[in-house]
Amino acid sequence: MDPRDPHRRALIRASLALGLSTVAGRVWAAPKVDARLLVVFLRGAYDAANVVIPTGSDFYYRARPTLAVARPDAADPAAALALDADWSLHPSLRDTILPLYARGQAAFVPFAGTDDLTRSHFETQDTIELGQTVGASRDYNSGFMARLAAELTRTRPIAFTEQIPLIFRGTETVPNIAINEVAKPGIDARQAGLITAMYRDTPLAASVAEGFRVRDAVYQSVSEHQAEADRGAVSPKGFARSARRIGRLMRESFNLGFVDVGGWDTHVNQGAATGYLADRIGELGRGLAGFVEEVGPAWNDTVVVVLSEFGRTFRENGNRGTDHGHGSVYWVLGGAVRGGRIAGPQVRADEAHLFQNRDHPVLTDYRSLLAGLLRRLYGLDPASLRRVFADAAPADLGLV
């Protein structure tokens, strides 16, 4: 269409009036400001094959003589929970994640991951957090969530971690708080005032002031929540407690968050329907369910992505555990998520389709998955997406 055409000019004027932009002949929504995004990183490489379980595969049961979870059976509480004809969910998620799936608010993306083949925890965690092209020179001061925050308007990012994670390193300072260790501030108001005054005329002035502001806001919010919970209720433990706090803070103060959960490196005595992994998965599920409850009506504008650096070997090892693998399963949860399904490209979970005769293959690149999700969630245009994930083509899995 000729740009001088009056119909095209009218379309452009209407687009601008509606907060839209036109790129290469297409109309893109302006970035949404009310959407919330929380990324949950399971550090240590969780065994996805025993959480979102290929119960339709006979090979799964041959490959895991002591670790396999039984096929769905309504009479067996230790059996897997059917998601569709091929896939099932670990029974420890019966009361937490399965109801979200049933309501269409949870989707699982199997065969997802990176093209990083090092099978190194640290190397691959860095790969995911940076979101940069594997094999290229790395910029350790440019995490993909920091780049995302720079593309959004009215963004309020926070890392629920003890240190600023790689994923949020960038040109702007992002506040961080170790949410599971919130205690009364060790520096009182008078001391905070002196420190703020000390840095007033320096380049660090804004960061120091923001740091104290976030500290005080988080402490007040968590303290109020603790007082409410003490009215005859038992305080939740571990991640469940932390996730409720995160939900409260993201409901009230922040809209872009990151949290990591450790303990997923299960080389020995992993367990099946019960045991170490089952306990960890149960805790994760309770935490996420608590987060949903605490966020409340804002859940309809919230997306949670659960990911890990890589999967684990499809066959169990000699120590009744699993070793470092490749492809994983990502979770996408949210009130507006088009869930209740297994999303993305799939192959049979059998010996013929193993990657290097040991692992789940990667069929959905994590950057493409996230780019497609961010495009739909925030209405980012192609140029913005390229700045967040260079050289990654968005994969539209229709998740939101």
Q: What are its keywords?
A:
400 residues; alpha/beta; 8-stranded mixed sheet; 3-stranded antiparallel sheet; 11 helices
Write structural notes for this entry.
The protein is of the alpha/beta class and 400 residues long. It has helices at residues 6-17, 58-63, 97-102, 121-130, 144-151, 189-198, 205-229, 238-252, 276-295, 366-378, 382-388, and strands at 20-23, 26-29, 36-42, 52-53, 81-82, 88-89, 106-113, 157-159, 256-261, 302-308, 328-334, 341-342, 364-365. The strands form 3 sheets. Strands 3, 7, 8, 9, 10, 11, 12 and 13 form an 8-stranded mixed β-sheet that branches. A 3-stranded antiparallel β-sheet has the order 4-6-5, with no helix packed on it. Strands 1-2 form a two-stranded antiparallel ribbon. A hairpin with a 5-residue loop joins β5 and β6 (88-89). α6 (189-198) packs antiparallel against α7 (205-229). Residues 1-31 and 221-237 have low confidence and may be disordered.
Layout of helices and strands, plus pairs?
Elements: H1 6-17, E1 20-23, E2 26-29, E3 36-42, E4 52-53, H2 58-63, E5 81-82, E6 88-89, H3 97-102, E7 106-113, H4 121-130, H5 144-151, E8 157-159, H6 189-198, H7 205-229, H8 238-252, E9 256-261, H9 276-295, E10 302-308, E11 328-334, E12 341-342, E13 364-365, H10 366-378, H11 382-388
Parallel strand pairs: 3-9, 3-10, 7-12, 7-13, 8-9
Antiparallel strand pairs: 1-2, 4-6, 5-6, 7-11, 10-11
Number of strands: 13
Strand content: 5-15%
By secondary-structure content and strand pairing, the structural class works out as alpha/beta
Task: Write down the overall mean pLDDT.
Answer: 84
Order of helices and strands: HEEEEHEEHEHHEHHHEHEEEEHH
User: What percent of the residues sit in helical stretches (DSSP H or I)?
Assistant: 25-40%
**What's the number of helices?**
11
Tell me the major beta sheet.
8 strands, mixed
End-to-end Cα distance: 31 Å
* Rg (C-alpha, Å): 22 Å
Poorly predicted runs of 5 or more residues: 1-31, 221-237
**What is the 3D shape?**
globular
